[in-house]
Write a structure and sequence with these properties.
Blueprint: E1 2-3, H1 12-41, H2 45-70, H3 76-108, H4 110-114, H5 116-139, H6 141-149, H7 158-185, H8 188-212, E2 218-219, H9 233-264, H10 268-290, H11 300-320, H12 322-331, H13 339-372, H14 379-409, H15 411-436, H16 440-457, H17 464-468, H18 482-496, E3 497-502, E4 507-512, E5 516-520, E6 523-527, H19 532-545, E7 551-555, H20 561-567, E8 574-579, H21 582-587, E9 604-608, H22 611-617, E10 622-627, H23 643-646, H24 648-652, E11 653-661, H25 670-683
Parallel strand pairs: 7-8, 7-10, 8-9, 10-11
Antiparallel strand pairs: 1-2, 3-4, 4-5, 5-6
Length: 691
């Protein structure tokens, strides 16, 4: 076996800057790929889960394989150059591969034609075709650079932490730039190609550095093992611990997205902001770890302390509960400063919930690699191994949380469960540390932190006010009566709540105040009385204008009033309804008195799935097509607006005569509404916009 010499110290800042840019490109790809995947597979959780599984699985596989490979080469920097070149080529080809995947998926009939299980298998296969090679190569970059740059005597693996931190902070900039700038200015495909061009330049620069600093290959020198790697029980727990913390962090990401949607508004911007702040915390945590002494190797007490702190910072916002939602309502008044004021408000709330726990999670990754070993020649191998276990745990957390635990327990209980699991892991790690070294003071501090976390978990937590007061939509104004209004609204929301459930796709609630209303992610999706003029007549307009309507397609069930009244039209024989969230179907029965008993009508068929995918893959034709997304800026709904979404409606309309697309313009951003009107005008020969 051969080993390489460490790079000169003068090259380290340049390598760190290059890794920053590489992380930037990676998140440009991730955000853009997820957007393209929604256009192919739809915005359902099952479709997103397939893409997440392949993306994270590729990273883990690349870390595992290339981590073992770079240990055997004399010039790991040259390997890194080839990896960046491969990423550039694979990423540049991905838009074309997405088109191929789209053609295949539509040809097979989508999930409606294939069924849920086979549809998931096909999505996984197509996502692997598109993303597998690029993500596997991405997973190998950190082990390769770590092997090239690691110094002798760095027993704490601080160099790995520097690399990890800079790479992740670059990812933050990439996520923000893509969500807020690139897609708006360049579009999805051009954003990918721009990042691929940058990756190509990185490959050329690294290749030049690798040639200039190519080391002489030398045989490995036998070195004494500083500690047993897998001989003790504690060592055997390291990799499962890496998987568990990855599992819990991705579980909490799901909880954060679900719980923060009502107080932030649930827009695609706030989704990107949560992701960016989580990545920022991870990057800062890596840099914080790097500030420690290179000669000092961490202990199991260090891991126990990070788990206890992460549990504390997870449980703290849970304990604050509705007061944090009130703070979100107060800071939302910054909207008077324009869009930047709203972003500042979202950042303050999200930063309190996400950032501290993410910083601790970022500190854990280099700590785990240091606990695994301190030998320089194994650093790439160890980084890849921890990376693989961590990402594979993250995949399980995403799938288990989204499909099982979230619908079963609900977001607040899942929040509590994640914090308690970290408390348990902290106690286990502390016990292992106690077995190796008796440090009563450290153990006492650890127990105090865990007890405090448990105390926070015993708090009532977020109530109906947090989840169903429509704070993010601006429906609660704290200026009217200050804190007294908060207390009254809190009591009113608790009293008026009839039923609530966390579904696979969204949180749904039924509230009864002066009216019976259906809330989805904290925003009203329809009310029996006050929304009747909109929900009934928006669909009836098409029935009135059409000379002889016989069939109708309604995208989105909601209260069922739109579809129910269309089914009541004498000439209409069938009404097809496509609904994404199964829980909505259960609660729509509560509106039977105003939706013409839609669910009992022989004319009505309700299909569960993504509306856009259903339109693309369905073969039936309709006289009237009606779609009324809640808000054009809501996460997932942007896939309804591109021309690739509207054009398929021409294929399912029997004569291409009537396609209705509603837009709630009172609180929505004007630009998406104007864009959608222009697209409808371009796709249909006769179009009209009204208010």
């Amino acid at each position: 076996m051969l080993t390489s010499n460490p790079l000169p110290a003068s090259l380290r800042p340049r390598i760190a800057a290059i890794l920053f840019v590489s992380g930037f490109c990676s998140l440009v790809y991730q955000v853009a790929w997820f957007r393209l995947a929604r256009l192919v597979f739809g915005a359902s959780t099952s479709a997103t889960a397939a893409v997440v599984a392949i993306f994270m699985g590729g990273l883990g596989l690349g870390g595992y394989f290339f981590g073992r490979y770079v240990r055997r080469v004399a010039n790991p920097l040259g390997v890194y150059a080839r990896l960046e070149l491969g990423i550039a080529i694979a990423a540049a080809a991905s838009p074309v591969l997405f088109e191929v995947a789209r053609w295949v998926y539509i040809g097979l009939g989508g999930s409606a034609g294939l069924g849920a299980s086979l549809g998931m298998v096909v999505r996984l296969g197509l996502a692997t075709l598109v993303l597998g090679s690029a993500t596997t190569l991405m997973g190998g970059t950190l082990p390769a650079v770590a092997q090239a740059i690691e110094r002798e005597g760095d027993r704490g693996r601080r160099d790995v932490a520097w690399l990890y931190g800079y790479n992740t902070l670059g990812a933050v900039v990439g996520a923000l730039a893509t969500a807020f700038v690139f897609i708006e200015l360049l579009g999805i495909r051009r954003s990918i190609w721009l990042a691929a061009l940058i990756n190509l330049l990185i490959a050329l620069i690294i290749r030049r550095l690798a040639l200039d600093t190519e080391p002489e290959a030398k045989p490995d020198e036998p070195a004494a093992q500083p500690a047993a790697r897998f001989g003790s029980a504690g060592s055997r727990l390291l990799l499962p611990a890496a998987a568990i913390v990855g599992f819990l962090f991705f579980l909490m990401e799901i909880v954060w997205y679900r719980m923060l949607a009502p107080v932030l508004g649930g827009s695609s911007y706030t989704f990107g902001l949560i992701l960016s702040l989580a990545l920022a915390g991870i990057g800062l945590g890596g840099l914080l770890y790097a500030l420690g002494s290179p000669e000092r190797r961490p202990s199991w007490y260090s891991l126990a302390g990070t788990c206890a702190l992460e549990a504390f910072f997870l449980a703290l916002p849970f304990a604050v509960g509705d007061a944090l939602a009130y703070f979100a309502a107060v800071t939302r008044q910054l909207y008077v400063l324009g869009f930047l004021g709203l972003v500042l408000s979202w950042t303050l709330v999200t930063g309190f919930v996400v950032l501290p726990a993410a910083i601790v999670a970022g500190y854990q990754f280099p700590l785990l690699t240091a606990l695994l070993g301190s030998e320089r020649d194994r650093v790439g191998h160890d980084v890849g191994l921890v990376y693989a276990w961590n990402t594979w745990g993250a995949i399980l957390g995403s799938l288990a949380g989204g499909f099982g635990l979230l619908p079963l327990l609900g977001a607040p209980r899942l929040w509590w469960l994640a914090a308690m699991c970290l408390v348990t892991l902290s106690l286990v790690a502390g016990f292992v540390g106690w077995q190796q070294e008796r440090r009563p003071t450290t153990l006492a501090a650890l127990l105090a932190c865990t007890l405090l976390s448990v105390g926070f978990c015993l708090a009532p937590g977020p109530s109906a006010f947090w989840r169903h007061a429509s704070i993010g939509a601006g429906r609660f104004d704290p200026r009217l009566d200050g804190f007294n209004a908060f207390q009254r609204q809190r009591q009113s929301d608790r009293h008026n709540l009839v039923a609530e459930a966390d579904g696979v796709e969204s949180s749904v609630a039924l509230v009864r105040g002066r009216d019976l209303a259906l809330l989805i992610n904290g925003k009203s999706d329809g009310a029996a009385r006050t929304d009747a003029a909109t929900t009934v007549m928006s669909g009836m307009v098409g029935a009135v204008l059409h000379p002889n309507p016989r069939s109708a397609l309604v995208i989105g069930l909601g209260t069922g009033m739109t579809a129910g009244w269309l089914a009541a039209v004498e000439s209409i024989q069938t009404v097809e309804v496509v609904e994404l969230e199964p829980v909505v179907l259960e609660l729509a029965s509560e509106f039977a008195s105003v939706n013409e008993r839609l669910l009992d009508s022989p004319k009505t068929r309700v299909a569960l799935g993504d509306g856009r995918e259903w339109v693309l893959t369905g073969s039936e034709r309709f006289d009237i097509i009606f779609s009324e997304p809640s808000n054009p800026y809501a996460r997932g709904l942007q896939t309804c607006f591109p021309a690739t979404s509207i054009v398929p409606c021409l294929g399912v309309s029997s004569r291409g005569e009537f396609f209705f697309n509603g837009c709630k313009a009172t609180r929505s951003m004007p630009r998406p509404c104007r864009r959608r009107s222009r697209l409808c005008s371009r796709c249909f020969p006769r179009s009209r916009s009204g208010r």
